[in-house]
Amino acid sequence: MQPLKDEVPSADNVLFVFYDFETSQDTKISETTKLHVPILVCLQQFCTAGEIQDDYEQDCARCGKRRHSFFEDPVGDLLSYLCEPRPWCKKVVAIAHNAKAFDLQFILNRAISLKWTPELILNGLKIV
Ligand SMILES: [Zn+2]
């Protein structure tokens, strides 16, 4: 077993994406329960190259446009965007506004229907 290194991992080749789903609740599934259907996802991204740019309103020189929104197929379009090839990028870290209770469920449902096998970090039965 290798000893742990006392250093912070480099984030030089990482794209960080923060996303938030908005949903409609027009579909009743019982007398007291309504189905949340994603109708919009908004995301904001950054990389270490963008941190050193003075004007944050300008596109990042490396990862481009900093804000995106998808509304035709919010879940599918978000996953497609996250999986786009980026020559400079080795890893995409997607962080949901409310993953534990809400936003991650849409991603997991789609991943299962696509027969992906996501790796989850669990704390008991809760997804961290
Ligand atoms: Zn960037």
Number of domain modules:
1
- Percentage of residues in helical conformation: 10-25%
Distance between the termini: 26 Å
Q: How do the strands line up in the largest sheet?
A: 3-2-1-4
Compute the number of helices.
Answer: 3
What value does the average pLDDT take? 89
Structural class: alpha+beta
| Low-confidence spans | none
Shape: globular
Order of helices and strands: EEHEHEHEE
- Strand content of the residues, in percent? 25-35%
Listed once per kind, the bound small molecules are: zinc ion
Number of strands: 6
Q: How is the biggest beta sheet arranged?
A: 4 strands, mixed
Please state the CA-atom Rg, rounded to the nearest Å: 17 Å
Strands, helices and their partners?
Layout: E1 14-28, E2 34-46, H1 48-51, E3 67-70, H2 74-82, E4 91-96, H3 99-113, E5 122-123, E6 126-127
Parallel strand pairs: 1-4
Antiparallel strand pairs: 1-2, 2-3, 5-6
Q: What does the model show?
A:
This protein has 128 residues and is α+β, with helices and mostly antiparallel strands. It has one domain. The chain has 3 helices and 6 strands; from the N terminus they run ββαβαβαββ. The protein has helices spanning 48-51, 74-82, 99-113, and strands at residues 14-28, 34-46, 67-70, 91-96, 122-123, 126-127. A 4-stranded mixed β-sheet has the order 3-2-1-4. The longest helix has 15 residues, at 99-113. It is globular and about 50 Å long. The relative contact order is 0.19. The mean pLDDT is 89. The chain binds zinc ion. Zinc ion binds at residues 46-47, 49-50, 60, 62-63.
